[in-house]
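Can't paste images in this forum, so I'm doing it all in text. The chain is below; anyone willing to post the predicted C-alpha coordinates underneath?
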Amino acid sequence: TLGAKPARMDSAEKMSALLSLGDLQDDVDELKELAQRCLRPTVKAMLTAECERLELELTTRAGMLTGAAQASLARGSNPAPARAPAPAPAPAPAPAAAAKPKPALAPKAFSSGPAPVRLPNGAAETRVSYSTIASFGWDQDGYGKDPQNVYVHIMSGVDGIGQLKERVSCDFSKHSFDLKILDFDGKNHRLFKDNLDKDIIPSESKVIVKKNSIKICMRKAKGQYGYDSWMDITAKKTRNEDAAQGADPSSGIMDLMKQMYDDGDDTLKKTIGEAMMKSRNGEPDKFDDKPSSRGALEDLDFGHGPGL
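Text version of the structure:
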Protein backbone atom coordinates (compact mmCIF):
# COMPACT_ATOMS: atom_id res chain seq x y z
CA THR A 1 0.00 0.00 0.00
CA LEU A 2 0.99 3.65 -0.44
CA GLY A 3 3.00 5.17 2.40
CA ALA A 4 4.05 1.83 3.89
CA LYS A 5 7.63 1.49 5.13
CA PRO A 6 9.91 -0.99 3.34
CA ALA A 7 10.39 -4.25 5.20
CA ARG A 8 14.18 -3.91 5.21
CA MET A 9 16.92 -1.36 4.56
CA ASP A 10 18.40 -1.41 1.07
CA SER A 11 22.11 -0.86 0.41
CA ALA A 12 21.73 2.90 -0.20
CA GLU A 13 19.96 3.41 3.16
CA LYS A 14 22.60 1.38 4.99
CA MET A 15 25.36 3.45 3.41
CA SER A 16 23.61 6.73 4.37
CA ALA A 17 23.08 5.54 7.96
CA LEU A 18 26.73 4.51 8.35
CA LEU A 19 27.96 7.86 7.01
CA SER A 20 25.55 9.72 9.31
CA LEU A 21 26.92 7.81 12.30
CA GLY A 22 30.44 8.70 11.22
CA ASP A 23 29.55 12.40 11.00
CA LEU A 24 27.96 12.31 14.46
CA GLN A 25 31.04 10.65 15.94
CA ASP A 26 33.30 13.30 14.35
CA ASP A 27 31.10 16.06 15.79
CA VAL A 28 31.25 14.49 19.27
CA ASP A 29 35.06 14.19 19.14
CA GLU A 30 35.50 17.80 18.01
CA LEU A 31 33.13 19.16 20.68
CA LYS A 32 35.05 17.24 23.38
CA GLU A 33 38.31 18.74 22.14
CA LEU A 34 36.84 22.26 22.15
CA ALA A 35 35.44 21.78 25.66
CA GLN A 36 38.89 20.74 26.95
CA ARG A 37 40.50 23.88 25.49
CA CYS A 38 37.75 26.29 26.59
CA LEU A 39 38.51 28.66 29.50
CA ARG A 40 35.07 30.16 30.11
CA PRO A 41 32.91 27.99 32.45
CA THR A 42 29.65 28.97 30.74
CA VAL A 43 30.92 28.17 27.27
CA LYS A 44 32.42 24.90 28.50
CA ALA A 45 29.06 23.87 30.00
CA MET A 46 27.27 24.62 26.72
CA LEU A 47 29.76 22.57 24.74
CA THR A 48 29.48 19.66 27.19
CA ALA A 49 25.66 19.71 27.01
CA GLU A 50 25.71 19.67 23.20
CA CYS A 51 28.25 16.82 23.26
CA GLU A 52 26.00 14.74 25.56
CA ARG A 53 23.01 15.36 23.26
CA LEU A 54 24.92 14.17 20.19
CA GLU A 55 26.23 11.11 22.06
CA LEU A 56 22.63 10.15 22.95
CA GLU A 57 21.57 10.58 19.31
CA LEU A 58 24.57 8.51 18.20
CA THR A 59 23.61 5.68 20.58
CA THR A 60 19.99 5.76 19.41
CA ARG A 61 20.89 5.61 15.73
CA ALA A 62 23.41 2.84 16.28
CA GLY A 63 20.75 0.80 18.12
CA MET A 64 18.26 1.29 15.29
CA LEU A 65 20.83 0.20 12.70
CA THR A 66 21.73 -2.90 14.75
CA GLY A 67 18.06 -3.84 15.18
CA ALA A 68 17.45 -3.53 11.43
CA ALA A 69 20.44 -5.74 10.68
CA GLN A 70 19.28 -8.42 13.16
CA ALA A 71 15.76 -8.38 11.69
CA SER A 72 17.21 -8.84 8.20
CA LEU A 73 19.24 -11.87 9.38
CA ALA A 74 16.17 -13.35 11.04
CA ARG A 75 14.14 -13.07 7.84
CA GLY A 76 16.98 -14.76 5.90
CA SER A 77 17.03 -17.77 8.26
CA ASN A 78 13.20 -18.13 8.31
CA PRO A 79 11.99 -17.33 4.80
CA ALA A 80 8.27 -16.73 4.31
CA PRO A 81 6.27 -19.63 2.74
CA ALA A 82 6.04 -19.43 -1.02
CA ARG A 83 2.70 -18.44 -2.47
CA ALA A 84 0.90 -20.41 -5.17
CA PRO A 85 1.87 -19.18 -8.61
CA ALA A 86 -0.67 -16.84 -10.13
CA PRO A 87 -2.01 -17.55 -13.61
CA ALA A 88 0.08 -16.01 -16.36
CA PRO A 89 -1.44 -12.76 -17.66
CA ALA A 90 -2.30 -12.34 -21.30
CA PRO A 91 0.60 -10.95 -23.35
CA ALA A 92 0.38 -7.20 -23.80
CA PRO A 93 0.85 -5.63 -27.21
CA ALA A 94 4.42 -4.59 -27.95
CA PRO A 95 5.04 -0.83 -27.38
CA ALA A 96 5.85 1.35 -30.34
CA ALA A 97 9.15 2.49 -28.80
CA ALA A 98 10.74 1.36 -25.60
CA ALA A 99 11.11 4.20 -23.08
CA LYS A 100 14.66 4.94 -22.10
CA PRO A 101 15.15 3.89 -18.48
CA LYS A 102 16.19 6.61 -16.03
CA PRO A 103 19.64 6.14 -14.54
CA ALA A 104 19.64 5.01 -10.93
CA LEU A 105 20.65 7.67 -8.45
CA ALA A 106 23.91 6.90 -6.70
CA PRO A 107 23.88 7.13 -2.90
CA LYS A 108 25.10 10.42 -1.48
CA ALA A 109 28.70 10.42 -0.38
CA PHE A 110 27.87 12.34 2.83
CA SER A 111 24.76 12.60 4.91
CA SER A 112 23.56 15.99 6.03
CA GLY A 113 23.58 14.78 9.64
CA PRO A 114 22.57 17.08 12.50
CA ALA A 115 22.56 20.84 12.08
CA PRO A 116 25.95 22.44 12.78
CA VAL A 117 26.38 23.91 16.24
CA ARG A 118 27.00 27.66 16.33
CA LEU A 119 29.49 28.21 19.11
CA PRO A 120 28.86 31.22 21.37
CA ASN A 121 32.51 32.28 21.17
CA GLY A 122 32.59 32.49 17.38
CA ALA A 123 34.24 35.62 15.95
CA ALA A 124 31.15 36.72 14.02
CA GLU A 125 28.87 36.38 17.07
CA THR A 126 31.16 37.91 19.70
CA ARG A 127 29.59 40.72 21.69
CA VAL A 128 31.82 41.27 24.71
CA SER A 129 30.95 44.00 27.19
CA TYR A 130 33.75 45.85 28.98
CA SER A 131 34.05 47.90 32.14
CA THR A 132 36.13 51.05 31.49
CA ILE A 133 39.32 51.42 33.56
CA ALA A 134 38.99 54.91 34.99
CA SER A 135 41.97 55.01 37.37
CA PHE A 136 45.43 55.24 35.81
CA GLY A 137 48.51 57.45 35.74
CA TRP A 138 51.13 58.30 33.14
CA ASP A 139 54.61 59.74 32.79
CA GLN A 140 57.42 59.93 30.23
CA ASP A 141 61.18 59.75 29.94
CA GLY A 142 63.07 62.97 30.56
CA TYR A 143 64.98 65.10 28.08
CA GLY A 144 68.18 63.60 26.71
CA LYS A 145 67.24 59.93 26.94
CA ASP A 146 67.29 57.96 23.70
CA PRO A 147 65.01 56.21 22.93
CA GLN A 148 62.16 57.72 24.90
CA ASN A 149 58.93 56.11 26.11
CA VAL A 150 55.59 57.18 27.50
CA TYR A 151 54.31 55.01 30.36
CA VAL A 152 50.75 54.31 31.51
CA HIS A 153 50.43 52.78 35.00
CA ILE A 154 47.41 50.85 36.29
CA MET A 155 47.85 50.07 39.97
CA SER A 156 44.32 50.09 41.37
CA GLY A 157 41.85 47.22 41.09
CA VAL A 158 44.28 44.69 39.55
CA ASP A 159 45.60 42.87 42.63
CA GLY A 160 46.71 39.36 41.64
CA ILE A 161 46.74 40.09 37.90
CA GLY A 162 50.26 38.67 37.67
CA GLN A 163 48.81 35.16 37.99
CA LEU A 164 46.55 35.74 34.94
CA LYS A 165 48.97 37.28 32.45
CA GLU A 166 47.43 35.35 29.56
CA ARG A 167 44.19 37.32 29.98
CA VAL A 168 45.89 40.69 29.41
CA SER A 169 46.49 42.05 25.90
CA CYS A 170 47.22 45.47 24.39
CA ASP A 171 46.92 46.52 20.75
CA PHE A 172 48.86 49.53 19.50
CA SER A 173 48.49 51.77 16.47
CA LYS A 174 50.39 54.90 15.46
CA HIS A 175 48.16 57.10 17.59
CA SER A 176 46.23 54.77 19.95
CA PHE A 177 46.44 51.88 22.41
CA ASP A 178 43.75 49.41 23.48
CA LEU A 179 44.31 47.46 26.72
CA LYS A 180 41.94 44.57 27.47
CA ILE A 181 41.68 42.33 30.54
CA LEU A 182 39.32 39.37 30.07
CA ASP A 183 37.40 37.63 32.86
CA PHE A 184 39.10 39.26 35.84
CA ASP A 185 37.04 39.50 39.05
CA GLY A 186 33.98 38.48 37.04
CA LYS A 187 34.29 41.31 34.49
CA ASN A 188 36.06 42.30 31.29
CA HIS A 189 38.07 45.50 31.66
CA ARG A 190 39.30 47.93 29.00
CA LEU A 191 41.39 51.09 28.68
CA PHE A 192 41.26 52.56 25.17
CA LYS A 193 42.89 55.86 24.22
CA ASP A 194 42.77 57.27 20.70
CA ASN A 195 44.27 60.50 19.31
CA LEU A 196 47.39 60.25 21.48
CA ASP A 197 49.23 63.51 22.08
CA LYS A 198 52.05 62.44 19.72
CA ASP A 199 52.71 59.47 17.44
CA ILE A 200 54.20 56.23 18.77
CA ILE A 201 55.93 53.23 17.21
CA PRO A 202 53.53 50.25 17.61
CA SER A 203 56.14 47.55 16.90
CA GLU A 204 58.36 48.81 19.75
CA SER A 205 55.57 49.30 22.28
CA LYS A 206 54.49 46.67 24.81
CA VAL A 207 52.52 45.88 27.95
CA ILE A 208 54.18 44.57 31.12
CA VAL A 209 52.07 42.62 33.65
CA LYS A 210 53.41 42.58 37.19
CA LYS A 211 52.14 40.94 40.37
CA ASN A 212 49.60 43.63 41.28
CA SER A 213 49.93 46.21 38.48
CA ILE A 214 50.04 46.73 34.71
CA LYS A 215 52.47 48.99 32.86
CA ILE A 216 52.07 50.09 29.23
CA CYS A 217 55.29 51.22 27.51
CA MET A 218 54.79 53.24 24.33
CA ARG A 219 57.87 54.09 22.26
CA LYS A 220 57.86 57.73 21.15
CA ALA A 221 58.26 58.51 17.46
CA LYS A 222 60.86 61.18 16.73
CA GLY A 223 59.53 64.52 15.56
CA GLN A 224 61.22 67.06 13.30
CA TYR A 225 63.57 68.19 16.07
CA GLY A 226 63.83 64.99 18.10
CA TYR A 227 61.53 63.57 20.74
CA ASP A 228 58.61 65.85 21.58
CA SER A 229 57.43 66.27 25.15
CA TRP A 230 53.83 65.14 25.68
CA MET A 231 51.46 67.62 27.31
CA ASP A 232 48.81 64.98 28.06
CA ILE A 233 48.09 61.35 27.22
CA THR A 234 45.70 62.47 24.46
CA ALA A 235 45.66 65.60 22.29
CA LYS A 236 42.92 68.21 22.55
CA LYS A 237 42.79 68.58 18.76
CA THR A 238 42.37 65.89 16.16
CA ARG A 239 45.09 65.20 13.63
CA ASN A 240 42.99 66.75 10.87
CA GLU A 241 42.88 70.02 12.81
CA ASP A 242 46.64 69.91 13.34
CA ALA A 243 47.20 69.34 9.62
CA ALA A 244 44.99 72.30 8.74
CA GLN A 245 46.86 74.47 11.24
CA GLY A 246 50.18 73.45 9.67
CA ALA A 247 48.89 74.53 6.25
CA ASP A 248 47.81 77.94 7.64
CA PRO A 249 50.30 79.24 10.28
CA SER A 250 48.13 82.24 11.16
CA SER A 251 45.36 79.91 12.34
CA GLY A 252 47.72 78.64 15.03
CA ILE A 253 48.13 82.14 16.44
CA MET A 254 44.38 82.67 16.42
CA ASP A 255 43.78 79.35 18.19
CA LEU A 256 46.43 80.19 20.79
CA MET A 257 44.94 83.63 21.52
CA LYS A 258 41.43 82.20 21.76
CA GLN A 259 42.62 79.46 24.11
CA MET A 260 44.39 82.04 26.28
CA TYR A 261 41.18 84.07 26.40
CA ASP A 262 38.99 81.05 27.27
CA ASP A 263 41.37 79.67 29.91
CA GLY A 264 42.57 82.97 31.38
CA ASP A 265 41.31 84.86 34.41
CA ASP A 266 39.23 88.04 34.25
CA THR A 267 42.32 90.29 34.08
CA LEU A 268 43.79 88.44 31.09
CA LYS A 269 40.42 88.40 29.33
CA LYS A 270 40.11 92.17 29.85
CA THR A 271 43.63 92.80 28.51
CA ILE A 272 43.10 90.67 25.40
CA GLY A 273 39.66 92.20 24.81
CA GLU A 274 41.02 95.76 25.01
CA ALA A 275 43.92 94.89 22.68
CA MET A 276 41.48 93.37 20.19
CA MET A 277 39.26 96.49 20.32
CA LYS A 278 42.24 98.82 19.79
CA SER A 279 43.44 96.69 16.90
CA ARG A 280 40.08 96.87 15.18
CA ASN A 281 39.87 100.66 15.72
CA GLY A 282 43.39 101.23 14.40
CA GLU A 283 44.69 102.58 17.71
CA PRO A 284 48.39 101.98 18.57
CA ASP A 285 49.06 99.14 20.95
CA LYS A 286 51.82 96.75 21.88
CA PHE A 287 51.08 94.63 18.78
CA ASP A 288 51.93 97.44 16.30
CA ASP A 289 55.42 96.07 15.62
CA LYS A 290 53.96 92.60 14.97
CA PRO A 291 51.59 92.83 11.99
CA SER A 292 50.87 89.14 11.94
CA SER A 293 49.76 89.20 15.56
CA ARG A 294 47.63 92.30 15.00
CA GLY A 295 45.97 90.64 12.01
CA ALA A 296 45.22 87.61 14.10
CA LEU A 297 43.64 89.77 16.76
CA GLU A 298 41.48 91.47 14.16
CA ASP A 299 40.24 88.11 12.94
CA LEU A 300 39.45 86.75 16.40
CA ASP A 301 35.81 86.28 17.32
CA PHE A 302 35.35 85.28 20.96
CA GLY A 303 31.57 85.29 20.80
CA HIS A 304 31.27 88.13 23.35
CA GLY A 305 32.48 91.67 23.79
CA PRO A 306 35.96 92.69 25.03
CA GLY A 307 36.65 92.72 28.69
CA LEU A 308 33.78 90.34 29.51
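Residues 106-114 have pLDDT under 50 and may be disordered. Strands lie at 131-132, 137-140, 149-154, 168-173, 176-184, 187-194, 200-209, 214-220.
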